Amino acid sequence: xxxxxxxxxxxxxxxxxxxxxxxxxxxxxxxxxxxxxxxxxxxxxxxxxxxxxxxxxxxxxxxxxxxxxxxxxxxxxxxxxxxxxxxxxxxxxxxxxxxxxxxxxxxxxxxxxxxxxxxxxxxxxxxxxxxxxxxxxxxxxxxxxxxxxxxxxxxxxxxxxxxxxxxxxxxxxxxxxxxxxxxxxxxxxxxxxxxxxxxxxxxxxxxxxxxxxxxxxxxxxxxxxxxxxxxxxxxxxxxxxxxxxxxxxxxxxxxxxxxxxxxxxxxxxxxxxxxxxxxxxxxxxxxxxxxxxxxxxxxxxxxxxxxxxxxxxxxxxxxxxxxxxxxxxxxxxxxxxxx
Length: 339
Description:
Layout: E1 36-44, E2 47-52, E3 55-61, E4 75-80, E5 90-95, E6 101-104, E7 114-118, E8 122-128, H1 136-149, E9 152-158, H2 166-169, E10 179-181, H3 192-202, E11 206-210, H4 217-224, E12 250-253, E13 259-262, H5 305-311, H6 319-334
Parallel strand pairs: 3-5, 8-9, 8-11, 9-10, 11-13
Antiparallel strand pairs: 1-2, 1-4, 2-3, 4-5, 6-7, 12-13
Helix pairs in contact: 1-6
C-alpha cells in the first residue's frame, strides 16, 4: 500500500535539534562578588527580612541555594535591589559560614537537627519560679544545647515576686552559670533594676531567649526593646502551661547595641543530635579524671574513674558538686529520671 511519503528518502528528513542538552551545563556557580552581606532578622513564608547596617531589606532565596535552610541570625549575601525601598525584593545567593548553631531535635530518639538560630553567642534560658512551675530538666537540656553549640548560658528567673529563687538556683551553683532574677511590680511591669541587669548581660552580644510558654519571655523582650510590641499571654489555670504568643523567631536590635532573638515557647527540647560523650569536654576541671575510666565509660556508672579523681581532691572543693551536675546533664540527655 502506497503512502503520501513514499517519494521521500532519508536525505529529505530534517533532524530537529533537541532542546535538552543544547546548552552545556556547568556546576560552576556565579561568584556574586558584588553581593551585599546582611543579617537575617525574620523569616515569614519564603520572605527573609534582613538588615544591612541600618537598612531593612526583604529578600527571597535564589533557586541555586537548593534546600539550604536559612534561619534568623544567618549572614547572607544578596544581589538585586538592596535599597530597602517599599515593594523591592533582593535575592539571597549565598549563606555565609556560621560561627555557632543552636539546634534541637524533635525528641531524643530523633537525630535530625532543627536549626533554631545561627551566629548567636549567648543562650538565655528564661524560666518562671512560679505560674508555671519551674522545670529544671528543661533548663538542664538548654544548658546542654548551649555547651554543644559553643554558646555562653545565662539564666533569667522571672516572677520572683511569687516564689523564692534560692532552692532552684542551688542546683546550678556548681556549674557557675550567671543568672539574673526579675520580679513583677504592682502595675504588671518588670522591676526596672532587674531589666537593667539583664541589659548589662546582653549589650553588645547576640542572645537567644528560650523557655516554656508563659514564663515571661515576651514581657522581658518588650522591656528590653520598648518598640518590639511582642504579644504576651496568660498561663492556663488548668494545665499550668502558657499559651504560645510568639509564632516565629525574630531578632531585635537592643538600644545599647547587640541583638536579642525571641523564639516561640517550647514544650520540650530534644537532644538527639548531641553526643553525650562530648559533655565532659565542657567540664575542664573533671576531664583529666577520665584517664582512669574504663573504655566506653558513660561517666555515670559504678566503675567511672571520675569518682576516684574527685574523691582525691584533684578536682577542687567543688568537685563532687560539679560531678553530680555533669551526671544530671547526662541523664537529661539519656532520659534517666534519677534525681
